[in-house]
Queue: 3 jobs
Job 1
Amino acid sequence: MARPSLREKIIESGVRTLHERGYAGAGVREITSDAGVPQGCFTNHFRSKEAFAATILDRYHERTQAIMDGTLRDKGRPPVERLRAYFDAITERLEAAGWRYGCLVGNMSLEVPEQSEVLRTHLVEVCRALTDAFAEAVRAGQDAGEIRGDLDAGDVATFLLAAWEGAMMRMKVDRSPQPIEQFKRVIFASILAPGVKAGSPQ
Protein backbone atom coordinates (compact mmCIF):
# COMPACT_ATOMS: atom_id res chain seq x y z
CA MET A 1 0.00 0.00 0.00
CA ALA A 2 1.34 3.44 -0.94
CA ARG A 3 2.41 5.69 1.92
CA PRO A 4 0.06 8.64 2.51
CA SER A 5 1.27 11.93 1.07
CA LEU A 6 2.34 14.73 3.39
CA ARG A 7 -0.77 16.64 2.34
CA GLU A 8 -2.95 13.68 3.28
CA LYS A 9 -1.22 13.34 6.64
CA ILE A 10 -1.87 17.01 7.37
CA ILE A 11 -5.54 16.68 6.41
CA GLU A 12 -6.10 13.55 8.48
CA SER A 13 -4.38 15.08 11.48
CA GLY A 14 -6.17 18.37 10.88
CA VAL A 15 -9.61 16.80 11.17
CA ARG A 16 -8.71 15.58 14.63
CA THR A 17 -6.85 18.72 15.68
CA LEU A 18 -9.56 21.19 14.63
CA HIS A 19 -12.22 18.94 16.11
CA GLU A 20 -10.49 18.79 19.48
CA ARG A 21 -8.99 22.30 19.72
CA GLY A 22 -11.21 24.45 17.53
CA TYR A 23 -10.24 26.74 14.69
CA ALA A 24 -8.67 29.44 16.86
CA GLY A 25 -6.93 26.94 19.13
CA ALA A 26 -5.27 24.97 16.34
CA GLY A 27 -2.30 26.88 14.97
CA VAL A 28 -0.16 25.76 12.04
CA ARG A 29 2.53 24.62 14.47
CA GLU A 30 0.07 22.39 16.33
CA ILE A 31 -1.41 21.05 13.12
CA THR A 32 1.94 20.07 11.60
CA SER A 33 3.26 18.77 14.91
CA ASP A 34 0.26 16.51 15.33
CA ALA A 35 0.73 15.33 11.74
CA GLY A 36 4.42 14.66 12.31
CA VAL A 37 5.52 16.77 9.34
CA PRO A 38 7.76 19.87 9.05
CA GLN A 39 5.94 23.16 9.54
CA GLY A 40 6.95 24.31 6.06
CA CYS A 41 4.89 21.50 4.53
CA PHE A 42 1.71 23.34 5.46
CA THR A 43 2.34 26.32 3.22
CA ASN A 44 3.45 24.00 0.43
CA HIS A 45 -0.02 22.46 0.31
CA PHE A 46 -2.41 25.13 1.65
CA ARG A 47 -2.43 28.81 0.79
CA SER A 48 -3.88 29.78 4.16
CA LYS A 49 -5.30 28.38 7.39
CA GLU A 50 -8.72 29.40 6.06
CA ALA A 51 -8.28 27.27 2.93
CA PHE A 52 -7.04 24.42 5.10
CA ALA A 53 -10.13 24.63 7.33
CA ALA A 54 -12.37 24.48 4.26
CA THR A 55 -10.58 21.29 3.17
CA ILE A 56 -11.03 19.84 6.66
CA LEU A 57 -14.75 20.62 6.55
CA ASP A 58 -15.00 18.82 3.22
CA ARG A 59 -13.21 15.74 4.58
CA TYR A 60 -15.40 15.67 7.69
CA HIS A 61 -18.49 16.10 5.52
CA GLU A 62 -17.41 13.19 3.31
CA ARG A 63 -17.28 10.98 6.39
CA THR A 64 -20.70 12.16 7.51
CA GLN A 65 -22.08 11.48 4.03
CA ALA A 66 -20.68 7.95 4.18
CA ILE A 67 -22.58 7.37 7.43
CA MET A 68 -25.72 8.79 5.80
CA ASP A 69 -25.30 6.43 2.85
CA GLY A 70 -25.44 3.48 5.25
CA THR A 71 -28.33 4.85 7.30
CA LEU A 72 -30.48 7.73 6.01
CA ARG A 73 -30.22 6.59 2.40
CA ASP A 74 -30.54 2.87 3.07
CA LYS A 75 -33.72 2.02 1.15
CA GLY A 76 -33.73 -1.41 2.78
CA ARG A 77 -34.81 0.14 6.08
CA PRO A 78 -38.15 1.76 6.93
CA PRO A 79 -37.69 5.57 6.82
CA VAL A 80 -37.99 6.14 10.57
CA GLU A 81 -35.46 3.37 11.16
CA ARG A 82 -33.10 5.19 8.76
CA LEU A 83 -33.29 8.29 10.93
CA ARG A 84 -32.76 6.36 14.13
CA ALA A 85 -29.86 4.40 12.61
CA TYR A 86 -28.14 7.65 11.65
CA PHE A 87 -28.45 9.20 15.10
CA ASP A 88 -27.35 5.93 16.72
CA ALA A 89 -24.29 5.70 14.44
CA ILE A 90 -23.22 9.22 15.34
CA THR A 91 -23.92 8.53 19.01
CA GLU A 92 -21.45 5.64 18.91
CA ARG A 93 -18.75 8.03 17.69
CA LEU A 94 -19.63 10.60 20.32
CA GLU A 95 -19.37 7.94 23.01
CA ALA A 96 -15.98 6.79 21.69
CA ALA A 97 -14.76 10.38 22.12
CA GLY A 98 -15.98 10.50 25.71
CA TRP A 99 -18.82 12.90 24.89
CA ARG A 100 -16.21 15.67 24.53
CA TYR A 101 -16.04 17.03 20.99
CA GLY A 102 -19.47 17.06 19.40
CA CYS A 103 -19.76 17.83 15.68
CA LEU A 104 -17.02 19.68 13.82
CA VAL A 105 -19.61 21.43 11.65
CA GLY A 106 -21.50 22.65 14.72
CA ASN A 107 -18.32 23.65 16.53
CA MET A 108 -17.09 25.71 13.59
CA SER A 109 -20.55 27.20 13.06
CA LEU A 110 -20.29 28.71 16.54
CA GLU A 111 -16.72 29.87 16.11
CA VAL A 112 -15.90 31.13 12.62
CA PRO A 113 -18.81 32.97 10.88
CA GLU A 114 -17.66 36.36 12.19
CA GLN A 115 -14.03 35.59 11.37
CA SER A 116 -14.27 34.26 7.83
CA GLU A 117 -16.89 34.82 5.14
CA VAL A 118 -15.29 32.02 3.11
CA LEU A 119 -15.80 29.50 5.91
CA ARG A 120 -19.26 30.86 6.74
CA THR A 121 -20.31 30.26 3.12
CA HIS A 122 -18.74 26.82 3.22
CA LEU A 123 -20.67 25.97 6.36
CA VAL A 124 -23.92 27.12 4.73
CA GLU A 125 -23.31 24.65 1.91
CA VAL A 126 -22.49 21.79 4.28
CA CYS A 127 -25.55 22.46 6.43
CA ARG A 128 -27.74 22.62 3.34
CA ALA A 129 -26.49 19.20 2.22
CA LEU A 130 -27.16 17.73 5.67
CA THR A 131 -30.64 19.27 5.75
CA ASP A 132 -31.43 17.90 2.29
CA ALA A 133 -30.50 14.38 3.42
CA PHE A 134 -32.79 14.66 6.45
CA ALA A 135 -35.59 16.04 4.27
CA GLU A 136 -35.33 13.11 1.89
CA ALA A 137 -35.75 10.64 4.75
CA VAL A 138 -38.62 12.65 6.23
CA ARG A 139 -40.48 12.72 2.91
CA ALA A 140 -40.02 8.98 2.58
CA GLY A 141 -41.43 8.59 6.08
CA GLN A 142 -44.42 10.73 5.20
CA ASP A 143 -45.05 8.71 2.03
CA ALA A 144 -44.91 5.52 4.11
CA GLY A 145 -47.27 6.90 6.73
CA GLU A 146 -44.61 6.77 9.44
CA ILE A 147 -44.09 10.51 9.88
CA ARG A 148 -46.76 13.14 10.37
CA GLY A 149 -47.99 14.46 7.05
CA ASP A 150 -49.10 17.80 8.44
CA LEU A 151 -45.49 18.91 8.83
CA ASP A 152 -43.41 20.41 6.04
CA ALA A 153 -40.50 18.04 5.35
CA GLY A 154 -38.07 20.90 4.85
CA ASP A 155 -39.09 22.47 8.16
CA VAL A 156 -38.71 19.14 9.95
CA ALA A 157 -35.27 18.61 8.42
CA THR A 158 -34.09 22.08 9.40
CA PHE A 159 -35.35 21.55 12.93
CA LEU A 160 -33.75 18.10 13.15
CA LEU A 161 -30.33 19.48 12.27
CA ALA A 162 -30.64 22.48 14.60
CA ALA A 163 -31.89 20.39 17.53
CA TRP A 164 -29.26 17.69 16.94
CA GLU A 165 -26.44 20.23 16.90
CA GLY A 166 -27.85 21.83 20.05
CA ALA A 167 -28.00 18.47 21.80
CA MET A 168 -24.36 17.79 20.93
CA MET A 169 -23.36 21.22 22.23
CA ARG A 170 -25.07 20.54 25.56
CA MET A 171 -23.51 17.05 25.58
CA LYS A 172 -20.05 18.64 25.39
CA VAL A 173 -20.82 20.90 28.34
CA ASP A 174 -22.26 18.10 30.47
CA ARG A 175 -19.82 15.41 29.22
CA SER A 176 -22.87 13.19 29.27
CA PRO A 177 -25.04 11.28 26.77
CA GLN A 178 -28.20 12.52 28.47
CA PRO A 179 -28.86 15.44 26.06
CA ILE A 180 -28.48 13.05 23.11
CA GLU A 181 -30.94 10.57 24.55
CA GLN A 182 -33.39 13.35 25.41
CA PHE A 183 -33.16 14.62 21.84
CA LYS A 184 -34.02 11.18 20.45
CA ARG A 185 -36.97 10.69 22.77
CA VAL A 186 -38.52 14.08 22.07
CA ILE A 187 -37.85 14.13 18.33
CA PHE A 188 -39.41 10.77 17.60
CA ALA A 189 -42.33 11.42 19.91
CA SER A 190 -42.94 14.67 18.02
CA ILE A 191 -42.68 13.67 14.36
CA LEU A 192 -44.11 10.15 14.25
CA ALA A 193 -47.55 9.56 12.81
CA PRO A 194 -50.14 8.37 15.37
CA GLY A 195 -49.76 4.68 16.18
CA VAL A 196 -46.24 4.35 14.74
CA LYS A 197 -43.35 3.28 16.94
CA ALA A 198 -39.84 4.54 16.19
CA GLY A 199 -38.06 2.09 13.91
CA SER A 200 -41.21 0.17 13.02
CA PRO A 201 -43.25 0.52 9.83
CA GLN A 202 -46.95 1.23 10.16
Job 2
Amino acid sequence: MKDGDDFMIEYGRSIRWFNDYTAEVEFSKSTNFDFMQIWYVKGEILLDKVLSPKELHILKSNFPVMIHAVYDIDDYDTYTDKLIRILNFLGHNEVIIHPVCESQNVNKDTIYTIADKIHKTNLLLNQNNIKLYIENNSVIDKINYKPEDLKIVFDKNPDVELLLDVAHIDDYVHLEKIIDVKYPTCLHIADKRFNVLHEHLPLGKGELDFNLIFKKYLHEFDGKIIFEVVDTDELILNSKRTIELILNNNNQNHLR
Protein backbone atom coordinates (compact mmCIF):
# COMPACT_ATOMS: atom_id res chain seq x y z
CA MET A 1 0.00 0.00 0.00
CA LYS A 2 1.03 3.55 -0.61
CA ASP A 3 1.31 6.22 2.06
CA GLY A 4 -1.33 8.79 2.88
CA ASP A 5 -3.45 10.23 0.10
CA ASP A 6 -1.63 8.18 -2.55
CA PHE A 7 -3.49 5.06 -1.39
CA MET A 8 -6.35 4.51 -3.79
CA ILE A 9 -8.50 1.48 -4.50
CA GLU A 10 -11.15 1.48 -7.23
CA TYR A 11 -14.10 -0.80 -6.54
CA GLY A 12 -16.00 -2.49 -9.35
CA ARG A 13 -18.56 -5.25 -9.57
CA SER A 14 -19.42 -7.85 -12.16
CA ILE A 15 -22.78 -6.87 -13.60
CA ARG A 16 -25.77 -9.14 -13.17
CA TRP A 17 -26.22 -9.49 -16.95
CA PHE A 18 -29.68 -11.02 -16.45
CA ASN A 19 -31.03 -7.84 -14.78
CA ASP A 20 -32.25 -4.56 -16.20
CA TYR A 21 -29.15 -2.53 -17.09
CA THR A 22 -30.50 0.80 -15.84
CA ALA A 23 -31.26 -0.78 -12.45
CA GLU A 24 -27.73 -2.16 -12.30
CA VAL A 25 -26.29 1.29 -12.98
CA GLU A 26 -28.46 2.90 -10.31
CA PHE A 27 -27.47 0.26 -7.77
CA SER A 28 -23.78 0.80 -8.51
CA LYS A 29 -24.11 4.57 -8.26
CA SER A 30 -26.08 4.51 -5.02
CA THR A 31 -23.61 2.12 -3.33
CA ASN A 32 -20.44 3.96 -4.37
CA PHE A 33 -19.00 1.50 -6.84
CA ASP A 34 -16.57 3.13 -9.25
CA PHE A 35 -17.33 0.95 -12.27
CA MET A 36 -18.99 -2.27 -13.47
CA GLN A 37 -17.48 -5.25 -15.25
CA ILE A 38 -19.26 -6.42 -18.41
CA TRP A 39 -18.52 -9.69 -20.21
CA TYR A 40 -17.63 -9.99 -23.89
CA VAL A 41 -18.08 -13.53 -25.27
CA LYS A 42 -17.77 -14.70 -28.89
CA GLY A 43 -17.84 -11.16 -30.19
CA GLU A 44 -20.90 -10.06 -28.22
CA ILE A 45 -21.40 -7.98 -25.08
CA LEU A 46 -23.27 -10.11 -22.55
CA LEU A 47 -26.33 -8.10 -21.47
CA ASP A 48 -29.63 -9.98 -21.66
CA LYS A 49 -32.06 -7.05 -21.63
CA VAL A 50 -30.26 -4.55 -23.88
CA LEU A 51 -30.85 -4.28 -27.63
CA SER A 52 -27.95 -4.03 -30.07
CA PRO A 53 -25.80 -2.07 -30.46
CA LYS A 54 -25.27 -2.67 -26.75
CA GLU A 55 -22.21 -0.45 -26.57
CA LEU A 56 -24.40 2.55 -27.48
CA HIS A 57 -26.71 1.82 -24.55
CA ILE A 58 -23.69 1.49 -22.25
CA LEU A 59 -22.28 4.81 -23.45
CA LYS A 60 -25.58 6.64 -23.01
CA SER A 61 -25.92 5.27 -19.47
CA ASN A 62 -22.90 7.39 -18.50
CA PHE A 63 -21.43 5.04 -15.88
CA PRO A 64 -17.90 3.59 -16.15
CA VAL A 65 -17.53 -0.04 -17.19
CA MET A 66 -14.65 -2.41 -17.90
CA ILE A 67 -14.87 -5.13 -20.55
CA HIS A 68 -14.03 -8.70 -19.50
CA ALA A 69 -13.40 -10.72 -22.69
CA VAL A 70 -13.49 -14.50 -22.38
CA TYR A 71 -11.21 -15.75 -25.17
CA ASP A 72 -10.95 -19.31 -26.38
CA ILE A 73 -7.75 -20.13 -28.22
CA ASP A 74 -9.12 -19.11 -31.65
CA ASP A 75 -10.98 -16.02 -30.47
CA TYR A 76 -7.93 -13.74 -30.52
CA ASP A 77 -7.84 -13.80 -34.32
CA THR A 78 -11.63 -13.76 -34.74
CA TYR A 79 -13.02 -11.18 -32.34
CA THR A 80 -10.24 -8.72 -31.44
CA ASP A 81 -10.93 -6.22 -34.24
CA LYS A 82 -14.54 -5.89 -33.10
CA LEU A 83 -13.44 -5.71 -29.46
CA ILE A 84 -11.09 -2.84 -30.24
CA ARG A 85 -13.84 -1.00 -32.14
CA ILE A 86 -16.11 -1.32 -29.10
CA LEU A 87 -13.36 -0.20 -26.71
CA ASN A 88 -12.58 2.83 -28.87
CA PHE A 89 -16.27 3.69 -29.17
CA LEU A 90 -16.59 3.60 -25.38
CA GLY A 91 -13.35 5.55 -24.90
CA HIS A 92 -11.75 2.73 -22.91
CA ASN A 93 -8.03 2.44 -22.26
CA GLU A 94 -8.15 -0.93 -20.42
CA VAL A 95 -9.50 -4.41 -21.10
CA ILE A 96 -9.43 -7.82 -19.39
CA ILE A 97 -8.85 -11.03 -21.33
CA HIS A 98 -9.69 -14.30 -19.61
CA PRO A 99 -7.90 -16.99 -21.65
CA VAL A 100 -9.50 -20.44 -21.88
CA CYS A 101 -9.04 -23.43 -24.16
CA GLU A 102 -12.28 -25.31 -24.67
CA SER A 103 -12.22 -25.95 -28.42
CA GLN A 104 -8.93 -27.88 -28.46
CA ASN A 105 -7.17 -30.43 -26.32
CA VAL A 106 -4.58 -28.87 -24.03
CA ASN A 107 -1.01 -30.14 -24.44
CA LYS A 108 2.46 -28.93 -23.45
CA ASP A 109 2.56 -26.47 -26.37
CA THR A 110 -0.83 -24.85 -25.78
CA ILE A 111 0.38 -22.27 -23.27
CA TYR A 112 3.07 -21.12 -25.71
CA THR A 113 0.42 -20.68 -28.40
CA ILE A 114 -1.70 -18.63 -26.01
CA ALA A 115 1.31 -16.52 -24.98
CA ASP A 116 1.97 -15.78 -28.67
CA LYS A 117 -1.68 -14.89 -29.32
CA ILE A 118 -1.70 -12.59 -26.30
CA HIS A 119 1.47 -10.96 -27.63
CA LYS A 120 -0.08 -10.26 -31.05
CA THR A 121 -3.30 -9.02 -29.46
CA ASN A 122 -1.40 -6.77 -27.08
CA LEU A 123 0.45 -5.16 -29.99
CA LEU A 124 -2.92 -4.21 -31.51
CA LEU A 125 -4.18 -2.93 -28.17
CA ASN A 126 -1.01 -0.90 -27.64
CA GLN A 127 -1.55 0.77 -31.00
CA ASN A 128 -4.88 1.94 -29.63
CA ASN A 129 -3.44 2.95 -26.22
CA ILE A 130 -5.33 0.17 -24.42
CA LYS A 131 -3.81 -1.61 -21.42
CA LEU A 132 -4.31 -5.38 -21.23
CA TYR A 133 -4.96 -7.45 -18.10
CA ILE A 134 -4.68 -11.26 -18.28
CA GLU A 135 -6.58 -13.35 -15.74
CA ASN A 136 -5.31 -16.53 -14.06
CA ASN A 137 -7.52 -19.60 -14.31
CA SER A 138 -8.72 -22.20 -11.84
CA VAL A 139 -7.82 -25.88 -12.06
CA ILE A 140 -10.88 -26.69 -14.18
CA ASP A 141 -9.43 -24.78 -17.15
CA LYS A 142 -6.06 -26.59 -17.12
CA ILE A 143 -4.39 -23.67 -18.88
CA ASN A 144 -2.95 -20.42 -17.51
CA TYR A 145 -3.59 -21.90 -14.08
CA LYS A 146 -0.21 -23.13 -12.88
CA PRO A 147 2.42 -20.55 -11.91
CA GLU A 148 4.68 -22.08 -14.59
CA ASP A 149 2.05 -21.29 -17.22
CA LEU A 150 1.70 -17.74 -15.99
CA LYS A 151 5.47 -17.30 -16.16
CA ILE A 152 5.46 -18.33 -19.82
CA VAL A 153 2.70 -15.83 -20.57
CA PHE A 154 4.28 -12.90 -18.73
CA ASP A 155 7.84 -13.61 -19.87
CA LYS A 156 6.49 -13.24 -23.40
CA ASN A 157 4.35 -10.24 -22.42
CA PRO A 158 6.15 -8.28 -19.67
CA ASP A 159 4.09 -5.11 -20.16
CA VAL A 160 0.77 -6.95 -19.73
CA GLU A 161 -0.81 -6.73 -16.26
CA LEU A 162 -2.02 -9.64 -14.11
CA LEU A 163 -5.63 -9.75 -13.01
CA LEU A 164 -5.53 -12.13 -10.06
CA ASP A 165 -8.75 -14.03 -9.45
CA VAL A 166 -8.39 -14.94 -5.77
CA ALA A 167 -11.17 -17.52 -5.99
CA HIS A 168 -9.10 -19.46 -8.55
CA ILE A 169 -6.36 -20.44 -6.10
CA ASP A 170 -5.93 -23.99 -4.79
CA ASP A 171 -4.39 -22.81 -1.52
CA TYR A 172 -2.18 -20.04 -0.16
CA VAL A 173 1.01 -21.65 -1.47
CA HIS A 174 -0.54 -21.48 -4.95
CA LEU A 175 -1.37 -17.81 -4.34
CA GLU A 176 2.17 -17.01 -3.22
CA LYS A 177 3.69 -18.69 -6.26
CA ILE A 178 1.42 -16.72 -8.60
CA ILE A 179 2.34 -13.34 -7.17
CA ASP A 180 6.01 -14.32 -7.27
CA VAL A 181 5.57 -14.53 -11.05
CA LYS A 182 3.72 -11.21 -11.38
CA TYR A 183 2.22 -8.93 -8.78
CA PRO A 184 -1.38 -8.07 -9.66
CA THR A 185 -2.73 -4.61 -10.35
CA CYS A 186 -6.34 -5.80 -10.54
CA LEU A 187 -8.24 -8.41 -8.50
CA HIS A 188 -11.33 -10.51 -8.89
CA ILE A 189 -12.75 -11.06 -5.43
CA ALA A 190 -15.17 -13.80 -4.40
CA ASP A 191 -15.13 -16.54 -1.78
CA LYS A 192 -14.69 -20.29 -2.29
CA ARG A 193 -14.43 -23.60 -0.48
CA PHE A 194 -11.13 -25.38 -0.91
CA ASN A 195 -12.72 -28.76 -1.60
CA VAL A 196 -14.67 -27.34 -4.58
CA LEU A 197 -12.78 -27.02 -7.86
CA HIS A 198 -14.42 -23.79 -8.99
CA GLU A 199 -16.94 -21.43 -7.42
CA HIS A 200 -17.48 -17.76 -6.72
CA LEU A 201 -19.39 -17.19 -3.49
CA PRO A 202 -20.30 -14.03 -1.57
CA LEU A 203 -17.63 -13.23 1.01
CA GLY A 204 -18.18 -15.10 4.24
CA LYS A 205 -19.84 -18.05 2.51
CA GLY A 206 -16.56 -19.84 1.78
CA GLU A 207 -13.21 -20.55 3.40
CA LEU A 208 -10.91 -17.83 2.08
CA ASP A 209 -9.25 -15.79 4.82
CA PHE A 210 -9.20 -12.30 3.31
CA ASN A 211 -7.54 -10.80 6.39
CA LEU A 212 -4.63 -13.18 5.82
CA ILE A 213 -4.63 -12.63 2.06
CA PHE A 214 -4.36 -8.85 2.33
CA LYS A 215 -2.01 -8.77 5.31
CA LYS A 216 0.45 -11.44 4.20
CA TYR A 217 0.23 -11.75 0.41
CA LEU A 218 -1.39 -8.62 -1.00
CA HIS A 219 -0.37 -6.05 1.60
CA GLU A 220 1.12 -3.81 -1.12
CA PHE A 221 -1.88 -4.02 -3.42
CA ASP A 222 -3.08 -0.72 -4.86
CA GLY A 223 -5.36 -0.96 -7.87
CA LYS A 224 -8.77 -2.17 -9.02
CA ILE A 225 -10.91 -4.65 -7.10
CA ILE A 226 -13.80 -6.28 -8.95
CA PHE A 227 -16.33 -8.27 -6.94
CA GLU A 228 -17.48 -11.31 -8.90
CA VAL A 229 -20.52 -11.77 -6.71
CA VAL A 230 -23.70 -11.88 -8.80
CA ASP A 231 -26.11 -12.44 -5.94
CA THR A 232 -28.49 -10.25 -3.94
CA ASP A 233 -27.84 -6.57 -3.30
CA GLU A 234 -27.23 -7.33 0.37
CA LEU A 235 -24.60 -10.02 -0.30
CA ILE A 236 -22.80 -7.84 -2.85
CA LEU A 237 -22.66 -4.93 -0.41
CA ASN A 238 -21.54 -7.15 2.47
CA SER A 239 -18.68 -8.43 0.30
CA LYS A 240 -17.63 -4.87 -0.51
CA ARG A 241 -17.82 -3.75 3.14
CA THR A 242 -15.71 -6.73 4.22
CA ILE A 243 -12.84 -5.78 1.91
CA GLU A 244 -13.15 -2.05 2.61
CA LEU A 245 -12.85 -2.71 6.35
CA ILE A 246 -9.78 -4.93 5.91
CA LEU A 247 -8.02 -2.45 3.63
CA ASN A 248 -8.88 0.57 5.77
CA ASN A 249 -7.54 -1.20 8.87
CA ASN A 250 -4.40 -2.26 7.04
CA ASN A 251 -3.82 1.27 5.78
CA GLN A 252 -4.26 2.76 9.27
CA ASN A 253 -1.83 0.22 10.72
CA HIS A 254 0.66 1.01 7.97
CA LEU A 255 0.57 4.73 8.79
CA ARG A 256 1.18 4.27 12.52
Job 3
Amino acid sequence: MRVFIAIEFQDKIKDYLKEIQDLTKAKSEKGNFTIKDNFHLTLKFIGEVDLTLIEKIKEAIDKAVIGHNNFKLYFNKIGKFPRGSKSILWVGLKIEKELYLLYDKIENELEKINIKKEERKFTPHITIGREVVLKENFNNFLKEIELKKLPILVDKVSLMESTRVNGELKYIPLYVKNFK
Protein backbone atom coordinates (compact mmCIF):
# COMPACT_ATOMS: atom_id res chain seq x y z
CA MET A 1 0.00 0.00 0.00
CA ARG A 2 1.39 3.42 -1.02
CA VAL A 3 0.60 6.09 1.58
CA PHE A 4 1.22 9.69 2.59
CA ILE A 5 0.03 12.14 5.25
CA ALA A 6 -1.83 15.19 3.99
CA ILE A 7 -4.04 18.15 4.63
CA GLU A 8 -7.20 17.78 2.58
CA PHE A 9 -9.03 20.81 1.24
CA GLN A 10 -12.63 21.95 1.26
CA ASP A 11 -14.44 21.90 -2.10
CA LYS A 12 -14.28 25.71 -2.53
CA ILE A 13 -10.47 25.53 -2.30
CA LYS A 14 -10.34 22.65 -4.79
CA ASP A 15 -12.62 24.62 -7.11
CA TYR A 16 -10.30 27.62 -6.95
CA LEU A 17 -7.22 25.46 -7.56
CA LYS A 18 -9.02 24.02 -10.59
CA GLU A 19 -9.52 27.59 -11.90
CA ILE A 20 -5.77 28.22 -11.56
CA GLN A 21 -5.08 24.89 -13.22
CA ASP A 22 -7.42 25.68 -16.13
CA LEU A 23 -5.56 28.97 -16.71
CA THR A 24 -2.32 27.00 -16.61
CA LYS A 25 -3.61 24.41 -19.10
CA ALA A 26 -4.59 27.18 -21.50
CA LYS A 27 -1.01 28.51 -21.36
CA SER A 28 0.59 25.05 -21.73
CA GLU A 29 1.58 22.95 -24.69
CA LYS A 30 1.21 19.81 -22.64
CA GLY A 31 1.26 18.41 -19.12
CA ASN A 32 -0.09 15.78 -16.78
CA PHE A 33 -2.55 17.72 -14.63
CA THR A 34 -3.75 16.72 -11.17
CA ILE A 35 -7.44 15.79 -11.04
CA LYS A 36 -9.46 18.18 -8.88
CA ASP A 37 -10.37 15.59 -6.22
CA ASN A 38 -6.66 14.89 -5.65
CA PHE A 39 -5.63 18.43 -4.66
CA HIS A 40 -4.02 18.32 -1.20
CA LEU A 41 -1.00 19.46 0.78
CA THR A 42 1.45 16.63 1.46
CA LEU A 43 2.93 16.75 4.94
CA LYS A 44 4.84 13.47 4.63
CA PHE A 45 5.24 11.07 1.73
CA ILE A 46 5.82 7.63 3.23
CA GLY A 47 5.62 5.31 0.22
CA GLU A 48 5.03 1.58 0.18
CA VAL A 49 4.15 0.04 3.55
CA ASP A 50 2.55 -3.17 4.66
CA LEU A 51 -0.68 -3.22 6.61
CA THR A 52 1.05 -3.87 9.95
CA LEU A 53 2.64 -0.40 9.81
CA ILE A 54 -0.65 1.41 9.12
CA GLU A 55 -1.81 1.17 12.75
CA LYS A 56 1.51 2.55 13.98
CA ILE A 57 1.24 5.45 11.53
CA LYS A 58 -2.28 6.20 12.80
CA GLU A 59 -0.97 6.25 16.38
CA ALA A 60 1.87 8.57 15.34
CA ILE A 61 -0.67 10.95 13.76
CA ASP A 62 -2.78 10.85 16.94
CA LYS A 63 0.24 11.82 19.05
CA ALA A 64 1.39 14.52 16.61
CA VAL A 65 -1.92 16.41 16.67
CA ILE A 66 -2.36 16.44 20.47
CA GLY A 67 -2.90 20.03 21.55
CA HIS A 68 -2.95 21.31 17.98
CA ASN A 69 -5.57 23.95 17.22
CA ASN A 70 -7.26 24.77 13.93
CA PHE A 71 -5.39 27.29 11.81
CA LYS A 72 -5.57 28.90 8.38
CA LEU A 73 -3.26 28.83 5.40
CA TYR A 74 -3.13 31.18 2.42
CA PHE A 75 -1.82 30.87 -1.12
CA ASN A 76 1.23 33.02 -1.79
CA LYS A 77 2.76 32.15 -5.17
CA ILE A 78 2.96 29.86 -8.14
CA GLY A 79 6.21 28.02 -8.49
CA LYS A 80 7.89 25.26 -10.40
CA PHE A 81 10.33 22.46 -9.86
CA PRO A 82 12.24 22.20 -13.17
CA ARG A 83 12.70 18.74 -14.67
CA GLY A 84 14.69 19.32 -17.86
CA SER A 85 12.45 21.03 -20.44
CA LYS A 86 9.37 20.17 -18.35
CA SER A 87 8.29 21.34 -14.90
CA ILE A 88 6.16 20.41 -11.94
CA LEU A 89 3.93 23.47 -11.45
CA TRP A 90 2.54 24.20 -8.02
CA VAL A 91 0.70 26.71 -5.89
CA GLY A 92 2.71 27.62 -2.80
CA LEU A 93 1.42 28.44 0.64
CA LYS A 94 2.39 31.31 2.89
CA ILE A 95 4.67 30.12 5.67
CA GLU A 96 2.70 29.75 8.89
CA LYS A 97 4.26 28.78 12.20
CA GLU A 98 1.42 26.36 12.97
CA LEU A 99 2.03 24.44 9.76
CA TYR A 100 5.71 23.98 10.53
CA LEU A 101 4.95 22.91 14.11
CA LEU A 102 2.53 20.29 12.79
CA TYR A 103 5.03 19.14 10.16
CA ASP A 104 7.79 18.78 12.77
CA LYS A 105 5.55 16.87 15.18
CA ILE A 106 4.57 14.44 12.45
CA GLU A 107 8.19 13.94 11.37
CA ASN A 108 9.26 13.34 14.99
CA GLU A 109 6.48 10.85 15.74
CA LEU A 110 7.09 8.93 12.52
CA GLU A 111 10.81 8.75 13.24
CA LYS A 112 9.94 6.91 16.48
CA ILE A 113 8.43 4.12 14.35
CA ASN A 114 11.46 4.02 12.03
CA ILE A 115 10.13 6.17 9.19
CA LYS A 116 13.04 8.37 8.19
CA LYS A 117 12.77 12.14 8.40
CA GLU A 118 12.68 14.08 5.15
CA GLU A 119 16.11 15.42 4.25
CA ARG A 120 14.85 18.16 1.93
CA LYS A 121 13.52 21.44 3.26
CA PHE A 122 9.72 21.43 3.63
CA THR A 123 8.22 23.50 0.80
CA PRO A 124 4.45 23.59 1.34
CA HIS A 125 2.83 23.38 -2.10
CA ILE A 126 -0.06 21.93 -4.04
CA THR A 127 0.91 20.24 -7.29
CA ILE A 128 -1.33 21.35 -10.15
CA GLY A 129 0.59 19.67 -12.97
CA ARG A 130 3.55 17.46 -13.77
CA GLU A 131 5.60 17.39 -16.97
CA VAL A 132 4.18 20.80 -17.87
CA VAL A 133 5.58 22.60 -20.89
CA LEU A 134 4.43 26.22 -20.99
CA LYS A 135 3.82 28.01 -24.28
CA GLU A 136 5.60 31.08 -22.90
CA ASN A 137 8.30 32.13 -20.48
CA PHE A 138 7.47 31.23 -16.85
CA ASN A 139 7.85 34.84 -15.65
CA ASN A 140 5.41 36.06 -18.30
CA PHE A 141 3.01 33.30 -17.29
CA LEU A 142 3.21 34.44 -13.64
CA LYS A 143 2.21 38.00 -14.58
CA GLU A 144 -1.12 36.69 -15.87
CA ILE A 145 -2.21 34.96 -12.67
CA GLU A 146 -3.06 36.74 -9.46
CA LEU A 147 -3.78 34.49 -6.48
CA LYS A 148 -6.75 35.24 -4.26
CA LYS A 149 -6.28 35.42 -0.51
CA LEU A 150 -8.70 32.62 0.30
CA PRO A 151 -8.46 31.21 3.83
CA ILE A 152 -7.78 27.47 3.89
CA LEU A 153 -9.04 25.98 7.15
CA VAL A 154 -6.77 23.30 8.57
CA ASP A 155 -8.60 21.31 11.21
CA LYS A 156 -7.46 17.76 10.57
CA VAL A 157 -4.74 15.52 9.14
CA SER A 158 -5.37 12.55 6.86
CA LEU A 159 -3.51 9.35 6.12
CA MET A 160 -4.04 8.84 2.39
CA GLU A 161 -3.63 5.88 0.10
CA SER A 162 -2.39 6.51 -3.43
CA THR A 163 -3.92 3.92 -5.74
CA ARG A 164 -5.27 3.46 -9.26
CA VAL A 165 -9.00 2.98 -9.78
CA ASN A 166 -9.98 2.09 -13.35
CA GLY A 167 -6.61 3.44 -14.51
CA GLU A 168 -7.04 6.81 -12.76
CA LEU A 169 -4.84 7.88 -9.85
CA LYS A 170 -6.94 8.38 -6.70
CA TYR A 171 -6.02 9.57 -3.23
CA ILE A 172 -8.26 7.85 -0.71
CA PRO A 173 -8.39 8.78 2.99
CA LEU A 174 -7.61 5.75 5.17
CA TYR A 175 -7.70 7.65 8.45
CA VAL A 176 -8.67 11.20 9.40
CA LYS A 177 -7.69 12.78 12.71
CA ASN A 178 -9.47 16.00 13.68
CA PHE A 179 -7.58 18.44 15.88
CA LYS A 180 -10.40 18.73 18.43
